[in-house]
């Protein structure tokens, strides 16, 4: 137990929580936007994976990390666009469409990787670029806080900014209002002249954009290369974070950090003598537990409302 | 000639044709010798008895998971836990097959039943959570897949691992536990009989029993079913139990029929493919057989292709995704149906 706290109560650990939360937070924000527009984006996992590969490929071929990031974003938005086209135009079942996107990405990334490099496992033969980390002046010199907050990857800071932007966008902008109106009641929104399909398209594409930044972070920050199935369920964890966060920007951000904590814990505990196989399940167990507690509290509340004397 | 009531069949057939066409297009882009590659892809799976045997061998696990998912999808439950259930039940069956000696005929049966019961128990958890507190079954079941995989790898590495084996694998199964081969010249095993029995029972269950009726009612409209007196929570739980049982039996049969040790070092993927099988089959247990055979055929074709040509077998997952997208698309080819309806109406007018 002493060892356990010795691992957790360090600035390194706090730093790593921020580090591993980044992709989850990005994807959860993506989940939030599309969910608010009434579309569950099950394809987050696949979108992230595609972007992770795109970032590596484009940065390797252009030699620029930032162009790589652009490519990753483009790849993610394209995948989201494909999902949007099928679900909104062809009325493909939302969940099955998302599952298809994930399957497409899981096999497609390996296929493309193999065709380009002859390797099915990693992109180690490509000299892909990594986005820089940033030291924040002044703050970096503060003891304890400095080493935790400063020196992170540029996308880590962007994920925090993104959370604020999404909060503001949903609350204060006409687009946010339209998205919420569509998600709340699609027919009411239509009756007041909102172009429902257009709003849902925009929401899904934005959702893809945010998830793609999470994917880019995976291969251009968290690691410096692409490995098969490297997102390892983060898209799904993000969906759970969004629903536990009660579909609000603040709640989603908080729960993303909660799951980031579980993930960091699982990474840190590997230093102790607990079998790695079991440790690796910690984030998933945490997600299930979180979701169950959340659902219990929701159904309790619903029961209370029902039994209230009129 | 074309009747609108058969529209779903035409649409599924068109989707499969489009998918095959797309396969050819991709092959001709990436292959040095496209025609030869396509020939391998289409012809190799049926070129010899042993290759056709491969198709049937692969169709067996796909049918199991397809059945499990068809039951769940029919009830409008998107539980993808069959993947983890299949894997973990296979491991549990291996435990019995390695650790316990038994009389020949009984041994595989006990292994398979044990795997099935473990599968049912695992699968019931997301179902129970869904029925009781409306916990999203899709997310929990996917998390369960990862958890089961971690626990399974732990058990394999620390409890069952044979350090003398050339790779990460368990000790050898007792020879009494292994399923015997059914057709000489192939690896088709007695699991074929078990899967056929399961298909028939699932069909009878779904269409000829009260529980099956309750399942279909709950799937069509849970609130309406609840109002008409069906305890939908109970239905959700027993369908999950049943789906887990089938997936568990499937995993056990696969392990005992195809291998002499437990050697999965990744989730085998049959659970996810089962979703595609169930969708192509429109959740009909009999249809699952055809869908599983089709999928097995293109999978074996892709395997042969990666072995004898320059195109990797992962290409097939792109095709699978396209099939899934189109087959579950309500509006796809709807204009065709409308035209058929119009013609029929004019004829009767």
From TrEMBL, chain A:
<keyword id="KW-0472">Membrane</keyword>
<protein>
    <submittedName>
        <fullName>Simple sugar transport system permease protein</fullName>
    </submittedName>
</protein>
<feature type="transmembrane region" description="Helical">
    <location>
        <begin position="39"/>
        <end position="60"/>
    </location>
</feature>
<feature type="transmembrane region" description="Helical">
    <location>
        <begin position="94"/>
        <end position="116"/>
    </location>
</feature>
<feature type="transmembrane region" description="Helical">
    <location>
        <begin position="13"/>
        <end position="32"/>
    </location>
</feature>
<feature type="transmembrane region" description="Helical">
    <location>
        <begin position="201"/>
        <end position="220"/>
    </location>
</feature>
<keyword id="KW-0762">Sugar transport</keyword>
<keyword id="KW-0813">Transport</keyword>
<dbReference type="InterPro" id="IPR001851">
    <property type="entry name" value="ABC_transp_permease"/>
</dbReference>
<keyword id="KW-1133">Transmembrane helix</keyword>
<feature type="transmembrane region" description="Helical">
    <location>
        <begin position="278"/>
        <end position="298"/>
    </location>
</feature>
<dbReference type="Pfam" id="PF02653">
    <property type="entry name" value="BPD_transp_2"/>
</dbReference>
<keyword id="KW-1003">Cell membrane</keyword>
<dbReference type="GO" id="GO:0022857">
    <property type="term" value="F:transmembrane transporter activity"/>
</dbReference>
<feature type="transmembrane region" description="Helical">
    <location>
        <begin position="154"/>
        <end position="170"/>
    </location>
</feature>
<keyword id="KW-0812">Transmembrane</keyword>
<dbReference type="GO" id="GO:0005886">
    <property type="term" value="C:plasma membrane"/>
</dbReference>
<feature type="transmembrane region" description="Helical">
    <location>
        <begin position="66"/>
        <end position="87"/>
    </location>
</feature>
UniProtKB/TrEMBL annotation, chain B:
<feature type="transmembrane region" description="Helical">
    <location>
        <begin position="276"/>
        <end position="298"/>
    </location>
</feature>
<dbReference type="InterPro" id="IPR001851">
    <property type="entry name" value="ABC_transp_permease"/>
</dbReference>
<protein>
    <submittedName>
        <fullName>Simple sugar transport system permease protein</fullName>
    </submittedName>
</protein>
<feature type="transmembrane region" description="Helical">
    <location>
        <begin position="138"/>
        <end position="156"/>
    </location>
</feature>
<keyword id="KW-0762">Sugar transport</keyword>
<dbReference type="GO" id="GO:0005886">
    <property type="term" value="C:plasma membrane"/>
</dbReference>
<keyword id="KW-0813">Transport</keyword>
<dbReference type="Pfam" id="PF02653">
    <property type="entry name" value="BPD_transp_2"/>
</dbReference>
<feature type="transmembrane region" description="Helical">
    <location>
        <begin position="52"/>
        <end position="73"/>
    </location>
</feature>
<feature type="transmembrane region" description="Helical">
    <location>
        <begin position="12"/>
        <end position="32"/>
    </location>
</feature>
<feature type="transmembrane region" description="Helical">
    <location>
        <begin position="80"/>
        <end position="100"/>
    </location>
</feature>
<feature type="transmembrane region" description="Helical">
    <location>
        <begin position="318"/>
        <end position="336"/>
    </location>
</feature>
<feature type="transmembrane region" description="Helical">
    <location>
        <begin position="188"/>
        <end position="207"/>
    </location>
</feature>
<keyword id="KW-1003">Cell membrane</keyword>
<feature type="transmembrane region" description="Helical">
    <location>
        <begin position="235"/>
        <end position="256"/>
    </location>
</feature>
<keyword id="KW-1133">Transmembrane helix</keyword>
<keyword id="KW-0472">Membrane</keyword>
<feature type="transmembrane region" description="Helical">
    <location>
        <begin position="106"/>
        <end position="126"/>
    </location>
</feature>
<keyword id="KW-0812">Transmembrane</keyword>
<dbReference type="GO" id="GO:0022857">
    <property type="term" value="F:transmembrane transporter activity"/>
</dbReference>
């Amino acid at each position: 137990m002493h060892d356990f706290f010795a691992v957790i109560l360090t600035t390194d650990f706090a730093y790593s929580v921020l580090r591993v939360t980044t992709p989850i937070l990005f994807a959860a924000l993506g989940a939030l936007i599309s969910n608010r527009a009434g579309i569950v984006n099950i394809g987050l996992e696949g979108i992230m994976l595609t972007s992770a590969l795109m970032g590596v490929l484009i940065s390797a071929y252009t030699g620029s990390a930032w162009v790589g990031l652009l490519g990753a974003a483009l790849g993610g938005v394209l995948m989201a666009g494909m999902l949007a086209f099928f679900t909104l135009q062809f009325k493909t079942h939302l969940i099955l469409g998302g599952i298809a996107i994930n399957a497409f990405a899981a096999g497609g990334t390996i296929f493309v990787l193999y065709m380009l490099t002859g390797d099915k496992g990693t992109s180690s033969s490509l000299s892909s670029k990594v986005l820089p980390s940033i030291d924040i002046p002044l703050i970096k010199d503060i003891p304890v806080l400095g080493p935790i907050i400063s020196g992170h990857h540029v996308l880590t800071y962007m994920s925090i900014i993104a959370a604020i932007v999404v909060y503001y966008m949903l609350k204060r902008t006409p687009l946010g209002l339209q998205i919420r109106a569509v998600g709340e009641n699609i027919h009411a929104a239509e009756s007041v002249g909102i172009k429902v399909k257009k709003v849902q398209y925009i929401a899904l594409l934005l959702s893809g954009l945010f998830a793609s930044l999470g994917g880019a972070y995976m291969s251009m920050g968290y690691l410096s290369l692409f490995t098969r199935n490297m997102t390892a369920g983060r898209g799904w964890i993000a969906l759970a974070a969004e629903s536990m966060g009660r579909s609000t920007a603040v709640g989603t951000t908080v729960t993303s950090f909660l799951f980031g904590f579980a993930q960091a814990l699982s990474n840190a505990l590997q230093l102790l003598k607990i079998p790695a196989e079991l440790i690796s399940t910690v984030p998933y167990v945490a997600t299930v537990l979180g979701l169950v507690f959340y659902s219990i509290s929701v159904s309790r509340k619903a029961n209370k409302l029902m039994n209230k004397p009129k | 000639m074309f009747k609108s009531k058969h529209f779903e069949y035409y649409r599924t057939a068109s989707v499969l044709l489009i998918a095959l066409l797309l396969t050819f297009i991709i092959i001709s882009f990436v292959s040095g010798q496209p025609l030869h590659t396509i020939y391998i892809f289409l012809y190799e799976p049926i070129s010899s008895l042993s290759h056709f045997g491969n198709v049937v061998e692969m169709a067996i696990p796909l049918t199991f998971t397809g059945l499990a998912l068809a039951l769940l999808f029919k009830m409008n439950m998107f539980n993808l836990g069959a993947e983890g259930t299949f894997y973990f039940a296979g491991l549990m069956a291996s435990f019995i097959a390695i650790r316990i000696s038994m009389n020949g005929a009984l041994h595989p049966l006990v292994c398979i039943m044990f795997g099935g019961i473990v599968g049912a128990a695992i699968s019931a958890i997301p179902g129970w959570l869904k029925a009781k507190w409306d916990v999203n079954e899709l997310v929990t079941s996917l998390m369960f897949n990862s958890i089961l995989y971690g626990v399974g790898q732990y058990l394999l590495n620390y409890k069952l691992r044979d350090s003398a084996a050339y790779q990460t694998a368990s000790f050898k199964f007792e020879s009494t536990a292994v399923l015997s081969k059914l057709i000489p010249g192939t690896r088709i095993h007695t699991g074929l009989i078990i899967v056929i029995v399961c298909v028939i029972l699932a069909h009878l269950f779904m269409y000829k029993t009260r529980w099956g009726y309750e399942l279909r009612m709950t799937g069509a409209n849970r609130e309406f079913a609840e109002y008409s007196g069906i305890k939908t929570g109970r239905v959700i739980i027993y369908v999950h139990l049943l789906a887990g049982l089938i997936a568990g039996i499937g995993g056990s049969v696969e392990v005992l029929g195809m291998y002499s040790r437990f050697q999965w070092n990744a989730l085998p993927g049959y659970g996810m493919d089962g979703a595609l099988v169930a969708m192509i089959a429109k959740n009909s247990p009999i249809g699952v057989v055809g869908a599983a055979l089709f999928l097995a055929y293109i999978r074996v074709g892709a395997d042969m292709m990666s072995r004898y040509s320059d195109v990797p077998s992962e290409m097939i997952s792109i095709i699978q995704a396209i099939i899934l997208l189109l087959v579950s698309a309500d509006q796809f080819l709807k204009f065709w149906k409308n035209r058929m309806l119009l013609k029929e109406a004019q004829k009767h007018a």
